[in-house]
Specification:
The chain is mostly helical and 186 residues long. It is 62% helix and 0% strand.
């Protein structure tokens, strides 16, 4: 069963969510760094949140990783240690932990913003960051499950090519059109 189109869709969605989180977190950092009046939530000026910086790094790494794996999937790159299932799953596991930590801390830190999200843009931005960071974690989880499913369905191990299709590079097709003559023993 061809499962790489589903993996391609999941990685494309991970790219889109990561780009959105990167934009939202950069906006939040720019807002808090340039704020001359106290922030509505913290009453501070000229600051940044460590979890927002972590989500910037996580989303940037996810963008790079999703583009790399999309090039492997669509280009059928399957040779070398950076293009196998083990490397893909190791990278996804690292991103999974980063997304989980960022989403959990963001949710804990700004758990109740209902009182201000209708009136203040920073609250709406933080609500969007919370939601999109959980979506980043979810799509990373889906990418892990899809990769494991593809590896199992193709009877591969962790050293198999991550593109998930038959790797026939370097083999030559049979081009003979006549049968070989029997060799007689003399």
């Amino acid at each position: 069963m061809a499962f790489y189109p589903v993996r391609t869709a999941f990685y494309s969605l991970l790219f889109a969510v990561s780009a959105t989180v990167l934009g939202l977190t950069c906006y939040r950092t720019n807002y808090t760094e340039k704020q001359d009046e106290p922030d509505i939530l913290t009453h501070k000026t000229h600051f940044y949140s460590a979890v927002i910086a972590e989500l910037i790094a996580t989303s940037a790494l996810s963008i790079i990783w999703s583009l790399w794996v999309l090039s492997i999937l669509l280009g059928r790159i399957g040779r070398g240690p950076l293009t196998n299932y083990g490397t893909e799953l190791l990278g996804l596991l690292c991103l999974w932990v980063l997304w989980l930590v960022g989403a959990a801390i963001t949710t804990h830190k700004w758990s109740n913003l209902k009182w201000c999200r209708g009136s203040f843009r920073p609250c709406r931005i933080l609500e969007s960051i919370k939601a999109m960071s959980w979506l980043g974690w979810a799509f990373t989880t889906f990418c892990i499950l899809a990769s494991l499913w593809n590896m199992k369905s193709n009877n591969q191990d962790f050293t198999g090519p991550a593109h998930g299709r038959g790797d026939h590079t370097g083999t030559y097709p049979e081009t003979r059109t006549t049968a070989a003559r029997p060799v007689s023993a003399v």
